[in-house]
C-alpha cells in the first residue's frame, strides 16, 4: 500500500467523524484539522488550512440542507450574520500570518470553560426557543457576533460551529435544533470565504481535499439525521461533550 493511500484512508476516516460531529453541534474541525496536520506534516500549515476547508464546506452544506427540511429559518437574522461573517472570515484568512494565535487561545479557553459550566448547570439552556429581543436588535446582534466568529474561523477555525450555536442560543434565544440549523448556514459562508482566499493563493491540496469531502458529506448526512431524530436534549448532551473536548484541545495548546 502506497504512502498516499495510507494517508488518504486516515484522512477520510477523520473527515467522516468530523462531518458527523459538526452536523450535530459543530466543532468537527477540532478533529479534522489536527488530524490532517498530524498525517501530512510535510506540507505548510496554510496548505492544511486551505485543504480542510473543502470537506468542511461541502459537509456543512449537506447538513444545512437536511436541517432546512424541518427548520424554519429567520432570514433577516441569518442574512445579517452571514454577510458580516463572510467578510470577517476573508480578513481572518488574510491575517493568518500576521497575528499570533498564542495570544488568542488562552482567551478562548477561558470562554469555553464558562460556556461548559453555564450549559451544564442550566438544564433548560437551548431546550426551548426563548426570544427577548426585537427583530431589529436580533439582526444587529447577529451581525456583530458574525464579525467576531467569522474572523476567528478565517484565522484559526476549529470550534466555529460550536461558537455559532452558542450565540444563537444564549444571545438570540434559539433552541438547539434551530441554532444548529442557522449555524450551519453561517458556517458555509465563513468556510467559503476562507476557501476563496486559500485557493487563490495556491494553498489547497485537491488530491486529499476531494476524497475527504466525500466522507465528510457522508458523516454530515448521518449526523444531521440523528440530531433531527433525537431533538434538543440529545444535542445539548452532545454539545457539552464537544465543548469539553474543545477545552482539552485548547488547554493542550496553551499549556504545552
TrEMBL record:
It is found in: Cell membrane. It comes from the Bacteria. The keyword Transmembrane applies. One of its GO terms (cellular component) is plasma membrane. It is a multi-pass membrane protein. The chain crosses the membrane at residues 47-65, 77-97, 103-121, 139-157, 212-228, 235-252. Keywords: Cell membrane, Membrane, Transmembrane, Transmembrane helix, Transport. The keyword Membrane applies. Belongs to the 4-toluene sulfonate uptake permease (TSUP) (TC 2.A.102) family. This is Probable membrane transporter protein. It comes from Pedobacter cryotolerans.
